[in-house]
Specification:
With about 525 residues, this protein is mainly alpha-helical. The protein is built from 21 helices and 10 strands. About 55% of the residues are buried. Its main location: membrane.
Length: about 525
């Protein structure tokens, strides 16, 4: 990382990060400078708020990282777009506008965290505030490195490590192995877990901040990735999952023995901070994630500006077991009855490449537009938080860890299955676990592409074309259809495409080597 980039990141750590003291407001309030800052408790809180500014960034958890999720067999790109097609086809070079800013933006989060870690310890403020703000900084640094390590690092090279100790340096090297990043992630998240409160200790204005369970959850997720290189890490996965379950915050699935409603309700606005919530993109009508509208019908039937990206494949639709309530909660198909802007209607689409639409995030669209949607359709945020880690992920990560250690993993899998209206199974295998993760997390940032990569299943999955339904009359919900190929088979090379290319500008600026083969 050259001097220009390092200084730019430092500047971003000290400016443009001031937000309302109400965390959920997400509204920036001017700029700050090092000369007049780091004096009061409000300063420390403002700085910690800046760690979450990326929640409002389309290039991050609006669509950005979803271009990588979109590489899976669960969905196809819904509109003609050369850059996103290159990513999905594994022919990208990292310079595509869809994906060329995420790498540096994760480093911006890291630099903001580093600045807090370097400045806050000396501040004369309440110890409880100091501990929480530092805990948030360690959490967000570990969180940012988790995504960088997952997407850009492997056994050939990790990702440059920038901390409060070396953040003013002008050059950085890539570690020899990504496990160096994973060890740092673990250290940061353990510090965060020691400092952060349980989510139950937060008042309403602080819900959405990093919390103790979120730190343990990302520790489990990091060790799932680490287990690709060291099978002993599966025991760590189980340990951290148990720490979430037993933290005292009352984690449990939303399960009232009503499968037709329970899974769907996980993605209701009333459950933004439910017992299943662990960490999510905080959103509201003015700022936040645009993902729900990104998945909505392009131009929204002339009613609201949906963007029409990321359509579920027929393969995903057919992968659900008979009787799985998650299928109807996850996918809309032609002739399904649903409520749109207060009126009941039958689903059809003149836009969908596959004849399907993701339904998970549709609750804000049930009501009149003014209630839960941004009136500006060019920035179509909503009141619905978008989950990054749910308790179901904790249960299934523990089950996977148990199976991988030759133990019985039925308990967690069956909790998830039973909520979906499915019968319990005995002697669950990795095939069972894989199917459960696909059915539970379709269309979420709990990334199936990453799962397929780490399982060694991506090459076989992507050697098959993606299919969908071609309806004779796209404006008739009852129209008949034929099955068509909507995306041809892809050439996935597991020796190359298990990581993504680092954007060329960042490679050049840092003087580091590109990931081999890209």
């Amino acid at each position: 990382m050259n001097k220009y980039i390092a200084l730019a990141l430092l500047s971003m750590g000290l400016t443009a990060q001031s937000c309302s003291t109400d965390f959920t407001d997400l509204t920036p309030e001017g700029t700050i400078t090092d000369a007049n800052y780091w004096k009061t408790e409000a300063d420390a809180i403002f700085a910690s708020n800046g760690l979450y500014e990326h929640f409002t960034d389309d290039a991050m958890f609006g669509r950005g990282l979803f271009w990588y999720v979109n590489a899976s067999d669960d969905m196809v790109t819904g509109r003609t777009d050369a850059g996103s097609a290159a990513v999905r086809n594994f022919t990208a070079n990292g310079n595509e506008s869809r994906v060329n800013s995420m790498y540096k933006k994760f480093y911006q989060i890291i630099q903001r965290a580093n600045t807090i870690i370097s400045k806050v310890p000396a501040m004369q403020i309440q110890e409880a505030t100091k501990q929480r703000v530092l805990g948030e900084a360690y959490f967000m640094r570990g969180y940012a490195y988790f995504y960088l390590a997952q997407y850009y690092g492997d056994q050939r090279a990790g990702i440059p490590i920038v901390t409060e100790e070396n953040m003013l340096e002008t050059r950085f090297e890539r570690p020899a192995h990504v496990r160096e990043n994973l060890a740092m992630i673990e250290a940061d998240l353990l510090r965060a877990a020691d400092m952060l409160p349980l989510v139950t200790a937060y008042g309403s204005s602080d819900l959405g901040r990093a919390n103790k369970d979120a730190a343990y959850a990302y520790l489990a997720k990091a060790n799932v990735q680490w287990a690709r290189y060291d099978a002993a890490k599966w025991a760590e996965v189980a340990k951290y999952c148990d720490l979430v379950t037993n933290s005292g915050s009352g984690r449990q699935l939303i399960d009232t023995n009503n499968p037709e409603e329970d899974f769907a309700s996980v993605f209701y606005m009333a459950n933004n901070y439910s017992s299943e919530y662990i960490f999510s993109v905080v959103s509201n009508k003015v700022r936040g994630s645009i993902l729900p509208a990104v998945l909505f019908e392009n131009t929204g039937y002339g009613l609201y500006n949906g963007w029409g990206y990321f359509h579920p494949t027929l393969e995903l639709y057919n992968s659900f077991e008979v009787g799985d309530a998650r299928k109807k909660a996850t996918i809309l198909e032609f002739n399904d009855t649903y409520t749109l802007f207060g009126a009941e209607r039958k689903y059809y689409s003149s836009n969908s490449q596959t004849g399907f639409q993701f339904k998970k995030y549709m609750e804000p669209f049930r009501y009149p537009i003014s209630q839960h949607l941004n009136p500006n359709g060019d920035y179509p945020t909503s009141d619905l938080n978008v989950p990054l880690v749910r308790y179901a992920d904790i249960l299934l990560m523990k089950s996977e860890a148990q199976i991988m250690q030759g133990q019985n993993g039925d308990a967690g899998i069956n909790l998830v299955r039973n909520r979906a209206g499915l019968a319990s199974i005995t002697g669950a295998t990795m095939a069972d676990l894989k199917r459960e993760r696909r059915s539970e997390f379709a269309g979420e940032y709990t990334d199936r592409h990453s799962d397929l990569v780490r399982w060694g299943d991506a090459q076989a999955a992507y050697a098959k074309p993606a299919t969908g339904r071609q309806h004779v009359t796209k404006t008739d919900p009852a129209s008949t259809f034929t099955t068509i190929t909507v995306w041809p088979a892809r050439n996935y090379n597991p020796a190359v495409h298990h990581v993504w290319p680092i954007p060329p500008q960042d490679v050049s600026n840092a003087g580091i080597a590109q990931n081999e083969g890209w």
